[in-house]
Amino acid sequence: MIKNLLLIAIRNFKKDKWYSLLNILGLTIGITFSLFLIFYIRDELNFDKFNLKADRIYRIVTYIQEKDKNTNWTITQYPLAPTMQKDFPEVEQAVRFTGKERTLFKSGDHDYYETKIYFADSNVFSVFTFPFLEGDPRTALTEPNSIVLTRTLAEKYFGKNNRAVGKTMRTVYDVYKVTGVIEDVPQNSHIRFDMLISGSTLKPNGGQNWGNFNHFTYVLLKPGALPSGVSKKLEEVEHKNVETIFARFNIKMQYGVQPITEIHLHSQLEREPEELGSMSYIWIFSAVAFFMLLIACINYMNLTTARSARRSKEIGIRKVTGSSRRQLIGQFLGESLLTAFIAVLLSFLLALILFPVFNELSGKAFTIRTLLQPFNILLMLGIALFTGLAGGSYPAFYLSGFQPVSILKGALSKASGNVSLRRTLVVIQFSISMIMLICTWVVYSQLSFLQKKDLGFDKSQVMSVTVNTGEDERGKIAAMNNEFRNLPGVKMVGSGNAYPGSSNINLNLFTVQTNTGHVDKALECYAVDENWMPTLGIKIVRGRNFSGPSDTLRSVMVNEALAKHFGWDEPIGKRVRFPGDTSSRYFEVVGMFGDFNQESLYNPIAPLLLFYGPNSNVIQIKTNQANIQQAIAGVQGVWKKYFPQLPFEYKFLDEGLNSQYVADQKRGKIFASLSVLTIIITCLGLLGLTAFTTQQKQKEISIRRVMGASIVQIVTMTTRNYLWLALIASLIAFPVAWYFMSNWLKVFSYNAGLSIIPFIVSALLIVLTAVLTVFYYSTRAALANPAVNLRTE
Q1: What is the distance between the alpha carbons of residues 540 and 458, in angstroms, rounded to a whole number?
Q2: What's the gap between Cα 481 and its chain centre?
Q3: Residue 38 and residue 58 in contact, taking contact as beta carbons nearer than 8 Å
Q4: DSSP label at 16?
Q5: How far is CA 414 from CA 250, 417, 618, 696, in A?
């Protein structure tokens, strides 16, 4: 029986190669990219779950409340971890990660700058699961100046087949001994690194107190311990150790306990170690994956139904000769399942081919191992069953319901077809395609707006180089900057210890003069020289720019946002000082500069205070676009003269700023790709439905042609129904797309807003696609010889 059904299915595939190809192609495309989305979603949902004790690991975070601002940090103070380890019976282990600045490491003939570096407590491997390839996890970070490398970094310095443990790595001041090599940290970890240095290497300093926040703190709770109990005890820690420090500044602080498995998709804190995901995108991509499968199934229904006229006599004869409806349903479901399984096998191969492309788009690292995971194999089988049964159910029940007498008399068009259902399916296809096109357009419009918006400074052709030796190099930097200024292609050179878009901006407490007295306020601040603002094209609104060494001790500059925040009508001459300083030392505002976006456009412009700091280590070089390559070569030559021991590295300011939106750009590209694919799949469905319609009306079209109807009239008659369906789809798609996109744009402090253009153009594009698809088949029907279609009458 099964063999017979299989043979009939194969025979029908061969008989109708074109329809079979369309069926399989549509299902393959839909299944492949639904699989990609499902893999993406699973990877996002599984962040940090590679840790064997993930369900018991929590991060301690900090909520700081000022009078006019709340600051939520991922970082805590140095003493918190040992305090919790000692005094909290619920805590099995407590561990800290402390970031280290960009550092030059040397080993033998190899020297590289490394950025993914953390100091970590020796028990880090008792909490987190980082498999060791060399060394002992229990002792690897116990001694000062011990270092553990990832596999990739060990191979980078010591070669692929050489043992790294026991060898040394040097910086300017320190020598580190390699005590362990671990597997690369998984991409789906909320904190990633290339090397860990023993926390005991950190020398005691003023930053290791209850008033300084600079450490990621994690706790491993004992089995059965509740985070609520830990939160309660943290209130006591805050009251005992922290409250007295901040109370005089009218600042309140509270700790929070955050499961690490919720960090990537749910955290909304500042100073995250890595780029975060978004739960809203998980819901969006889940819906897209489902709808892509749904559209593929709709196509299968339409295409199979379109073949019904060609199989009508087969169905009638099978019924007359004794085939039951159940057997016919089994036949058509069997063909559908066979098609689905062929499509899944092709999807498997297509996924392997396209993994590099999708990994590039999404930032993931999927491989053949991803496909061969037991869950994913079961998933593909489940998709095959779902698409086979869902896609074949309506045709199976529809075709098997034909009355044999009607079929054999050629009255298929009067059989149990459901025109309303088919039109509903087309409206669904149009609506989904339209929504995705509108959303894609809005996403890219917003990203374009972010890249083109006036940020308050000129980011074009500004290259940044950083001197990082661990020594005071201001004398060398001053001489080097002077040589930079004389290079062809270099316009201006300025320096500071931060720049727009950088993450190393200080947040310090200040006592600020206002019209009603002095207030304490945490302000962002850093140091720049007198050339920094001209180099970046930042305008001085009031007062003056820094002028030289005389500004070092007393002068500061502020932005417009700071003046507005404190209600300064006249900022020049206003004073600020460090809180608690009872001496007569203060800083005086000598100039106010125009607001510029220090951070991404997700964030509003914050009050900013700048000190004078000549010859700082982060150098900004404004170049001439016409001579940019010459300028780079010249800068490199001068750099090698002053710092021959340091590799020359540079980056352009606009590239760094644009990198803040990499996550949105990746998701936008995924969405754009899926939009195109959705249109392709929809076209395949329209092709099938048009085929069905024209086959049903073939004799009507032939009679109209005999009676004198032109081809244009025939095509217009067939096409206009789809215009109404597109209009109905627009009425559904417009409000849905508007709702989701208006909420998405609220995430940005600055956004391009919603224009009617994406809605109109997307609708026109879908209509045009539908018309062209329908035009093909209706023209073909209109051009057919009427005598051939009417000869059976």
Answers
A1: 14
A2: 38
A3: no
A4: T
A5: 81, 7, 79, 9
Kindly write down the DSSP assignment for every residue of 477-543, as one continuous string: HHHHHHHHHTSTTEEEEEEES--TT-S--EEEEEEEEETTEEEEEEEEEEEE-TTHHHHHTPPEEEE
Structure tokens at 490: 């270099």
Which DSSP category does 238 fall into? I
Q: Identify the weakest region by mean pLDDT among 301-310, 338-347, 702-711, 746-755.
A: 301-310
What is d(CA 298, CA 344) in angstroms, rounded to the nearest whole number? 17
Q: For the segment 33-80, what is each residue's pLDDT rounded down to a tens digit?
A: 888 888 999 999 999 999 999 999 999 999 988 777 778 889 999 999
pTM, rounded to two decimals: 0.81
Task: Determine the number of helices (DSSP H) and then strands (DSSP E) in the chain.
Answer: 25, 25
Q: How many CB atoms lie within 10 A of CB 499?
A: 28
| Tokens describing residue 162 | 């050489």
Q: Note the pLDDT tens digit of each residue in 425-471.
A: 778 888 888 888 888 888 888 878 877 778 888 888 889 998 887 67
- What residue has token string 């744009």? 745
Q: How many CA atoms lie within 13 A of 109 on its CB side?
A: 1
> Burial code of 640-658, b = ≥16 C-beta within 10 A, e = fewer?
eebbeebeeeeebbbebbb
The helix or strand, by DSSP H or E, that contains position 652, with its residue range, turns out to be: strand 651-652
CA dist 498 → 459, 489, 504 (Å): 14, 24, 6
- Residues 437-471: b if buried by 16+ CB within 10 A, e if exposed: bbbbbbbbbbbebbeeeebbbbbebbbbbbbbbee
Q: What is the dihedral of CA 540, 544, 548, 554, to 10 degrees?
A: -110
In 3D space, the residue among 135, 123, 180 whose CA is nearest the CA of residue 153 turns out to be: 180
- What residue ranges in 390-470 does DSSP mark as E strands? 462-466
Helical (H) or strand (E) element with 575: strand 575-577
E strand segments, 66-108: 70-73, 76-77, 91-99, 103-107
Asked if residue 520 lies in contact with residue 250, where contact means CB atoms within 8 angstroms, the answer is yes
Alpha helices (H) along 186-324? 227-237, 243-246, 263-266, 279-306, 312-320
